[in-house]
């Protein structure tokens, strides 16, 4: 009944707008003359209550020129597409979490009727471009809402893309195991957090999921504040000489991080850069940042632990002994003895007579730890309450990328993937509502640039 009342009310509201007759001619602020169409045209809008149609005059420079003013559409701030702004928002709210077909079916179950997957994809493309621009220009949070430590993090995850030149298979042919190709999306996040001091034993117990020895209440881990997150795929940009150059997603993400840091960092505030060991991330960031006493590079402890676990597998086959091996060396690393652990692993490899693959794997593990040793001063970090695990960026990668972009059988165009990542980033942030408001305002302004010409228009009121 409520749905029927809404449908009837909106139909009446549309009818009360009249036909938009502003006279045979109107003049724009630029001095251009727009002429009224010879007859009214049918305009269709689809709201959450159904499809509504009405008649209105339109205005253009000449009979066969593009329409520049639709008075009733402008008066009601209708979007360029048939779907209302609210319907567009609902479609994307559902589609950010699963493939388009099921969300559109669900929308039909909720509101009645059928909703096109193609239209939802087109809406996502427009919304995605706007979301990307919105995320690039996020305002700095209010100073009183920030925590003590400023943290920046980034990670790369592959997005499965379609092969533009892949041949279509006949019904009887077998597809390749790994169709398409992957392009790396760089997910970046900047947030603030309060210090959280812990001992090496406490960190180890948490990583090994130990049961607490007592029921004593433990201090809660501080939550990130004002988390801003976005994702970048490679982009083509002009090289200034009528050509195009590809800018990597890593460079774009690092530029975004630097912009966020510049806007948010307070005087003498500690900045922590927390990432895995991917060399391209660190090397790119070094182009913009100089590490020192108040700009701290930290290797995610989970990635260091993963390499120690691999090393344990080379020496121990029993699961319990492998865990004990890993635990003992993790404690040493957390207490500041990273280089001692590396020397010990190499010595054990020599004593065990490692050759071939085992020797190569151990060399790779030790090389990784040695390369990142300066970012593994966990005894200092934990004493000062610095975060040492990049759960925020790992969670962002899972939420933005894996949970939606890597579902079974999915393949994306580059632009389609870019749009979906942008929309998901805006949706999962604290800014979805403000983004929607800015999107509606911008689209209305661009769709109806001459709406101020309606200031003297008064439609006839229907008599009861």
Please name the defining characteristics of this protein.
464 residues; alpha+beta; five-stranded mixed sheet; four-stranded antiparallel sheet; 16 helices; 13 strands; 17% strand; elongated
Indicate the topology:
Layout: H1 2-15, E1 25-27, E2 33-36, E3 41-47, E4 50-56, E5 59-60, E6 67-69, H2 71-75, H3 85-95, H4 101-111, H5 117-136, E7 149-161, E8 181-193, H6 200-207, E9 225-232, E10 235-238, E11 244-247, H7 249-264, E12 271-275, H8 279-286, E13 295-299, H9 301-315, H10 319-334, H11 338-351, H12 356-371, H13 378-384, H14 391-405, H15 414-427, H16 432-447
Parallel strand pairs: 7-12, 12-13
Antiparallel strand pairs: 1-2, 2-5, 3-4, 5-6, 7-8, 8-9, 10-11
Helix pairs in contact: 3-4, 5-15, 6-10, 9-10, 9-12, 10-11, 11-12, 14-15
Characterization of this structure:
The protein has 464 residues and is an alpha+beta fold. Helix content is 44%, strand content 17%. Strands 9-8-7-12-13 form a five-stranded mixed beta sheet, with helices on both faces. A hairpin with a 6-residue loop joins strand 5 and strand 6. The longest helix is centred in the N-terminal third of the chain and has 20 residues. The chain starts with a helix and ends in a 17-residue tail after the last helix.
Mean pLDDT: 89
Q: Strand share of the residues?
A: 15-25%
- The radius of gyration computed from the alpha-carbon positions, rounded to a whole number of angstroms, is 29 Å
Widest sheet: strand ordering: 9-8-7-12-13
Number of helices: 16
Distance between the termini: 22 Å
Following the backbone from N to C, one meets helices and strands in this order, namely HEEEEEEHHHHEEHEEEHEHEHHHHHHHH
Which range best describes the helical content: under 10%, 10-25%, 25-40%, 40-55%, 55-70% or over 70%? 40-55%
Unreliable segments of 5+ consecutive residues: none
The count of β-strands is: 13
Structural class: alpha+beta
Which shape, going by the Cα principal axes?
Answer: elongated
Main beta sheet: strand number and arrangement? 5 strands, mixed
């Amino acid at each position: 009944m409520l749905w029927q009342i809404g449908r009837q009310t909106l139909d009446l509201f549309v009818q009360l707008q009249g036909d938009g007759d502003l006279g045979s001619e109107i003049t724009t602020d630029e001095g251009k003359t727009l002429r009224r169409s010879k007859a009214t045209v049918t305009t269709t809008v689809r709201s959450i209550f159904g499809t509504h149609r009405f008649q209105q005059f339109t205005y253009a420079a000449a009979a066969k020129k593009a329409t520049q003013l639709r008075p009733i559409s402008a008066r009601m701030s209708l979007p360029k597409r048939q779907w209302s702004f609210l319907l567009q928002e609902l479609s994307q709210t559902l589609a950010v979490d699963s493939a388009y077909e099921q969300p559109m079916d669900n929308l039909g179950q909720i509101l009645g009727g059928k909703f096109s997957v193609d239209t939802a994809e087109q809406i996502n493309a427009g919304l995605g471009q706007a979301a990307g621009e919105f995320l690039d220009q996020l305002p700095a949070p209010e100073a009183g809402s920030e925590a003590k430590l400023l943290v920046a993090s980034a990670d790369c995850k592959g997005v499965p893309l379609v092969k533009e030149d892949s041949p279509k298979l006949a019904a009887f042919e077998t597809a390749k195991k790994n169709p398409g190709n992957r392009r790396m999306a760089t997910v970046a996040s900047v947030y603030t957090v309060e210090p959280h001091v812990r001992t090496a034993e406490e960190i180890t117990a948490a990583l090994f999921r130990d049961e607490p020895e007592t029921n004593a209440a433990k201090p809660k881990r501080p939550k990130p504040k004002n988390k801003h997150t976005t994702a970048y795929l490679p982009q083509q940009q002009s090289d200034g000489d009528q050509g195009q150059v590809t800018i990597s997603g890593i460079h774009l993400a690092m530029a975004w991080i630097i912009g966020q840091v510049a806007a948010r960092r307070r005087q003498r505030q500690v900045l922590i850069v927390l990432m895995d060991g991917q060399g391209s991330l660190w090397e790119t960031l070094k182009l913009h940042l100089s590490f020192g006493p108040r700009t701290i590079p930290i290797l995610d402890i989970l990635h260091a632990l993963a390499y120690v676990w691999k090393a344990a597998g080379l020496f121990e086959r029993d699961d319990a002994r492998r865990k004990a091996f890993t635990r003992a060396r993790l404690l040493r690393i957390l207490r500041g003895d990273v280089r001692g652990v590396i020397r010990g692993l190499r010595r054990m490899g020599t004593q065990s007579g490692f050759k071939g693959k085992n020797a190569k794997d151990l060399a790779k593990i030790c090389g990784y730890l040695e390369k990142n040793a300066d970012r593994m001063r966990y005894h200092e970090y934990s004493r000062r309450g610095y975060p040492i695990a990049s759960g925020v960026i790992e969670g962002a990668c899972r939420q933005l990328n894996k949970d939606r972009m890597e579902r079974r059988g999915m393949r994306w165009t580059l632009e389609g993937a870019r749009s979906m990542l942008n929309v998901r980033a805006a949706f999962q942030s604290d800014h979805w509502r403000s983004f929607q408001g800015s999107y509606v305002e911008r689209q209305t302004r661009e769709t109806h640039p001459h709406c101020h010409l309606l200031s003297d228009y008064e439609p006839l009121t229907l008599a009861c």
